[in-house]
């Protein structure tokens, strides 16, 4: 299958986009093939079998696009597709503060305190392993500039955390010893 990816709100305002990621999902929602568009916005998927596929296209600063394509290599040797990404750029602002110097005790064995927090009210706390897998997620109520949370259920090792509220994200890390 060959195609072209463009941006624009109407076919008359389209402009080709290079660097978009496209992937085809089969009827089981498994990735059947993928491609990156070149500088002219063209892409090719050579591993698609016969059938109907959902085509997903995504690129930084653009709204993702979705389409469907049916391949019938018996009646048509080549299948062409055209996908248009939304013209409006997405803007998600997530200012990040690194809080390494505001985490104590570090290393810890029972409880961690994070100070210097600029948020107030209910926020979401996420804890990640050193491989990036989310271990837990829970709400925290920030009254003042610090919070404490138990870590006695965590195994010995290094962890990262995120405190999120609206468009503010604060990151940090800590270690557990016993």
Tags for this entry?
2 domains; 178 residues; four-stranded mixed β-sheet; mainly beta; Immunoglobulin-like
Written account of the structure:
The model is unreliable at 9-13 and 88-94 (pLDDT under 50). The protein is 0% helix and 53% strand. The protein has 178 residues and is mainly beta. The N and C termini lie far apart (57 Å). The strands form 4 sheets. The chain has a 5-stranded mixed sheet, with no helix packed on it. The protein has strands at 2-7, 15-16, 21-25, 31-36, 42-44, 51-58, 65-71, 80-85, 96-98, 103-104, 111-115, 121-129, 134-142, 146-150, 157-165, 168-176. It has 2 domains: 2-85, Carboxypeptidase-like, regulatory domain (Immunoglobulin-like, Sandwich); 96-176, Sandwich (Immunoglobulin-like). It has no helices and 16 strands.
